Description:
The complex is a heterodimer. By secondary structure, chain A is of the alpha/beta class. Chain A is built from seven helices and nine strands. Chain A has helices spanning 9-16, 30-33, 39-55, 73-76, 95-104, 148-151, 178-188; strands at residues 2-6, 21-27, 61-67, 88-91, 110-112, 114-124, 127-132, 168-169, 172-176. Chain B contains five helices and four strands. Chain B is globular. Chain B starts with 8 loop residues before the first strand and ends in a 7-residue tail after the last helix. By secondary structure, chain B is α/β, with parallel strands linked by helices. Chain B is 43% helix and 16% strand. The chains are: A alpha/beta, B alpha/beta. The interface between A and B is medium-sized, with 18 and 19 residues.
Amino acid sequence: MITAVRKPMEEIIACVSPYDRILLVGCNExxxxxxxxxxxxxxxxxxxxxxxxxxxxxxxxxxxxxxxxQCDPEYVExxxxxxxxxxxxxxxxxxxxxxTIAARFREKPVFPAVNTTFMGASERQGVWSERCQGCGDxxxxxxxxxxxxxxxxxxxxxxxxxxxxxxxxxxxANVDCAWQLIWDRLxxxxxxxxxxxxxxxxxxxxxxDGGPRKIIREDxxx
Amino acid sequence: xxxxxxxxIVAFCCHYCAxxxxxxxxxxxxxxxxxxxxxxxxxxGKVDAIHVMKALEKGADGVYVAGCMEGDCHFKTGNIRAxxxxxxxxxxxEEIGFDxxxxxxxxxxxGMGERFAQTAREFTExxxxxxxxxxxxxxxxxxxxxxx
Lengths: 222, 148
């Protein structure tokens, strides 16, 4: 999922303070799962903003809406009846959602209420870790299902480096060495020999080096 | 005429401990301030951050969540979850410049009638000393009806 964390209230307040009527929009997808911008978080932020402004002697009208998927124009269309009643939109979705709203309602200021953080997986309740950097050329098949791009601090394709100590990375003793994990996994699979295969330099054009990316499925696109 | 401040306090009380303790206080004829309005919940783990925030937003001067002693939760960890949520609400309140001492998590067992009454007295006095909630004051100034 795409993970996010709420921005500091000070920053959010600074964005919305010039306005009297805010449309606070959450998303039922990734940011709901990582408890950053779902229905509950929208309610909490709305309550906090109204309390803050009431304390300042100002009534802030905050309307709450949580869309099924904010990165999808079809769902963003649901805002059409509420958008005129708002001076600005505060989105709790990831950057994709914020931009979908901004593209649809060009005359309306849209502000992000969360910082989109990474593509990650849930380790346990309340803990998410980065697992994918969307490099566009997946190597998990040859690295035992552990991504060296997302999980090795140096993104080494042939590791480990000299900074690996007792299974931990030199940048932080709490960070696992991805190449140690890869080795352990290959060993468990009986594929130790694979560690000796040199992985050739990666073609980063499939990643951000090739500029903003786009997928066009001609069988689906009309 | 002097306007005497009487705090409005909302207490989310677990059915298995604090609510029973309140009952115990009643059976023992131990008085506690009528400022405390009890909301019975099946477990404090049921109390979400938004419940506390809404109570404050609607004009409560103080809110506390009263759950079981550590390790005694009927649902194992509901009281620990509630304590985490209360900490989260306190942090959010600090971020918006609202005195977080108006929100607390309190632990007690079902037999602690005296402690329930004492907690109610102490919390009421603490809130009385802090004065009316700025939300309630602002609401009154704007002619807004506090719906506690």
